[in-house]
Amino acid sequence: MTDLVPLLAGAVAGERRALARLLTAIEGGADGVRELIPSLFAASRGAHLVGITGPPGSGKSTLVNALATVWRRRGRRVGILAVDPSSPFTGGAIMGDRIRMMEHAGDLDVFVRSMASRGELGGLAGTTWIAAAVLDAAGYDPVVVETVGAGQSEVEIARLAETTVVVEVPEMGDEVQAIKAGLLEVADVIVVNKGDRPGAELAARQLRAMLSSVGGRITRQPPAILTTTALDGAGVDALADAIDAHRAAARAPDQAMQRARNQLRRAAAEIGVRAATAHPEWEELVEAVAERRVDPVTAAERLVGLRS
Amino acid sequence: MTDLVPLLAGAVAGERRALARLLTAIEGGADGVRELIPSLFAASRGAHLVGITGPPGSGKSTLVNALATVWRRRGRRVGILAVDPSSPFTGGAIMGDRIRMMEHAGDLDVFVRSMASRGELGGLAGTTWIAAAVLDAAGYDPVVVETVGAGQSEVEIARLAETTVVVEVPEMGDEVQAIKAGLLEVADVIVVNKGDRPGAELAARQLRAMLSSVGGRITRQPPAILTTTALDGAGVDALADAIDAHRAAARAPDQAMQRARNQLRRAAAEIGVRAATAHPEWEELVEAVAERRVDPVTAAERLVGLRS
Asked: Terminal CA-to-CA distance of chain B, rounded, Å?
């Protein structure tokens, strides 16, 4: 068993190798991760936690790269966790670091890590957020969590990030329009990327119209809507401004309470699963459910320790 | 409180109104849903549970519609749950039944219901699967769960459905290619839809090549790869054949055990969340986490009742 405490101390002291090893241990679900959490929590430097998401092909990675350039110019140290579509069988991230962030490869103040999204309890299960806390403790700020998705994973991000950026592309069909409408309610900042394509301004106007039609249902500040062209950097400075400006709003007490609720729900779900799978009757009850001798809910209650 | 037992009896007896009311109660999280589960489980008629998923714009709904036509011709009664991108604030499904399945509107042996995917514990949280069990008890077979997504929601389907169909479209970028590679490992049947477009046969060949490259990592039967054109019905008979043929493989003991494990994990997660949110100290600990006086994992352990 790797002792994680010295790795955390190393990461906090700025050692990239310790940081990388700690993230590997966390991603692999090493023993000792649970015990590390209070120290990790205590080591937080209060980094701004930013989620960036959007449908496949919206150019999120290029945009995150361009944002990192802007933030570096502003003297920020940027941590990036790219949650990749993962293989549920091998558990590994598919895209990997190889195609990411080549531009910042020599810059020690940009740290990029690809993480595999695990299927067990939703796309951004605990490990990603523990990894984000590690980057915070290591002095990166902002810490960006980038995910691909169309629906749930965006909602997950919004529930746990302080500022959620949703990246859209101009041209899209009806189904995507419906998804967009859902995202309007979780986005703090909306970016229409590939602004050089015909239709970008139209798309931004449509989003503003949608937004005003759902306005009454949104209880917080309406999202900013911006247009960028990640490839040449147009609009990216304004996007960094909008993200930075949202930090204060995200830390208002009601927003912090809402985030805490979501963090607690997610942690409680993971505790339930751990309790069930560690129970001595786990395999026995799996078999009983597989053979339809008991329903899954009754069996799970017994495993978690309720109605025992 | 609506008494759900008579509604279940009515649904089993073929009353559509009782069925619709029961599904509404389940979707709304009515009191009594938990108590209904053992009866529901006992009322199962063993319907084939089929998950159909794919990226936005892949034509899943049209394809499900075309499949329903084929199954009806074969004398099957078809139940369809369309899990729509939902509004996390209003909780409602966005697309609704309005644009779905107009073709089968007068057919009492096709039952279609849109469900909102809830964000709390992942896209296909318990309610969808309870609703699928209701359609099974009401005599529909197959019961199809259709979702949109690109990543997690597909994995979720695969974990709970007996047969998972992944719908692809020919033209797509790198990021989507990576997602596809991940899906190859969860799909039982892969459909390249919009087969009339240039590139459909090429896409099917690429998928077969990808599949042979990951073949060693897949422990079960490799997925069938088919081409369809949902709009004119080409290939849809063969797709229905492939789905029907997979039923026996899906019910082999090892597959049933794997599904049971996933059902139990999901149920355990939901039990954890319910235990936490019902705890008298819930709000107090939400506040403590929001004010960073305690880390979320330690707080959640206290709420769920471990390390108390």
From this structure: 34
pTM: 0.82
ipTM: 0.85
DSSP per residue over B60-89, as a string? HHHHHHHHHHHHHHTT-BEEEEEEE-B-TT
Closest residue in chain B to residue A288, using alpha carbons only? B260
Tracing tokens 């401004």 back to the chain, one arrives at: A241
Cα A262 to the chain's mean position, in Å? 13
Report helix, strand or coil for A161. coil
* Helix B126-137, helix B16-27: angle, nearest 10: 170
List chain A residues with CB under 8 Å of B44. Answer: 292
Would you place residue A90 in the very low, low, confident or very high pLDDT band (cuts 50, 70, 90)? very low
Strand-pairing partners, residue B226, are B191
Q: Which helix (H) or strand (E) holds B110?
A: strand B110-116
B44 in contact with A at a CB cutoff of 8 Å? yes
List chain B residues with CB under 8 Å of A54.
none
Q: Which of residues 190-209 of A touch B (CB under 8 A)?
A: none
For residue range A68-86, what is the model confidence (pLDDT) as tens digits? Answer: 999 999 999 999 998 865 5
Sign of CA dihedral B38, B275, B91, B50: negative
Q: Looking at the partner chain, which of A150, A267, A275 has a beta carbon nearest the beta carbon of B149?
A: A150
State how far the Cα of A116 lies from the Cα of A124, in Å rounded to an integer.
9
Q: How many residues does chain A have?
A: 308
Task: Report residue B29 as tokens.
Answer: 């999280």
Residue B242, classed as helix, strand or coil, is helix
